[in-house]
User: Fold this.
Amino acid sequence: MSVTTTVARSRRARLPGGVEHRKRSVYDDVTAQFNRAADLMKLDTNTRSILAVTMNEVVVHFPVKMDDGRLEVFTGYRVQHNNALGPFKGGLRFHPAVDIDEVRALATWMTWKSAIADIPFGGGKGGIQMDPSKYSLTELERITRRFTFALGNTIGPEYDIPAPDVNTNSQIMAWILDTYQSMMPAHERQRMLHVVTGKPIESGGSLGRDKATGQGVVFLIREWAKEHNFELKGATCTVQGFGNVGSWAVRLLKPLGVKLVAVEDVTGVIENGDGIDPDDLARYVKEKRGVAGYARARASTHLAFLRTKADILIPAALENQITATTAPLLNVRLVAEGANGPTDPDGDRLLQKRGIDLLPDILCNSGGVIVSYFEWLQNKRSESWELQEVDCKLYKRIVAAYGRVREAAKRYSVDWRTAAYVVALSRLEKVYKERGIFP
Ligand code: NAD
Assistant:
């Protein structure tokens, strides 16, 4: 285990449409968002200096045996931004673009997200720099287990609790749980169920966790629509990313009468002005692993996707998609950020200038961490709640968070992202003032 302070200022990643881009530092964007809100609310300087940096950054290099007998060494990360409100909490991502800069940004966003949702968690995030599609299932299992072993006590049910993110799922959480339990003394193993959330139901997962992030996005789109007297029945939407978040969001919008007209994922872009059935597409994607080749829509391009006229765009893939270059192309009324960090600060400015509303990531996709909290509570209490109870509690919590952000936006006459930061930072500022700093 080693601690790194490397700052990756830019990195290469494959962006939609197969374009290879030099990416800006995502952590710089987080810092710019943080500074804007901290200046505006005159955040206490001591709290500001604590929150401006991450607490712990762990980088592990670990060897794994491949199916053909070769050995490969992988690099994994876990960054813990802050735990003033409770244990570090945040997903694990398996992706070639994972690096210290990205994980640092994602961990920081988790702190704000938990604070806005008013749940007793801090912020953490991790991942492995790899393309999981290149490995067999047995290799993926060994990589996951060896990574868990390498992290050791960096994670723990009352200390730092991972969950699924891009290219990780409930199966991967089950392997992490089993590995973590196996490393514990026998008499302690049964108390470890809540070391990860997003587990399969049979292994201690919560009903409603699989759809939770998408469900939260939809609850908030409904609130936005109510507030703006906007009729969702007959409205149109587009989605970038058709994985856990994107697919659930558009499937849950379907019963509200919202028509899906274009979808982009890592395999390509499809569009159909008459509507794409998200349930049918989900069955296709499960089998084919992407939207490309879906027969009930036409193949399209990244540029055409961005220009699609629709009421709602749900970015639910990766960071830095709505930028100075792409924001002028959008033809929508609302951007509901299912993904973390899909809009950079230039993109933000342009959306505001063009009068496009925004439900910011740290509010909009908080359904996942909220239901993760419910799963964690159920594990600690040896309970399993009914789906209706989970959905009802999620609704109450996320709509209350929406109300807090709306209030802050009004009070400071400011955009919703900055308002969401103000809500998070105010809560943390109070806690630091009450507790003081040891010694
Ligand atoms: P996922 O792996 O289930 O799906 C990711 C989707 O993005 C896939 O459809 C993939 O094809 C697409 N994608 C990847 N690279 C792309 C590219 N270059 N261009 C276009 N599409 C691309 O991941 P997920 O869990 O749905 O996460 C998506 C986003 O939502 C991430 O930003 C994640 O951090 C955020 N998020 C996830 C959760 C959760 O509970 N899973 C919670 C909060 C936020």
Notes: The first helix runs from residue 26 to 41. The longest strand covers residues 71-82.
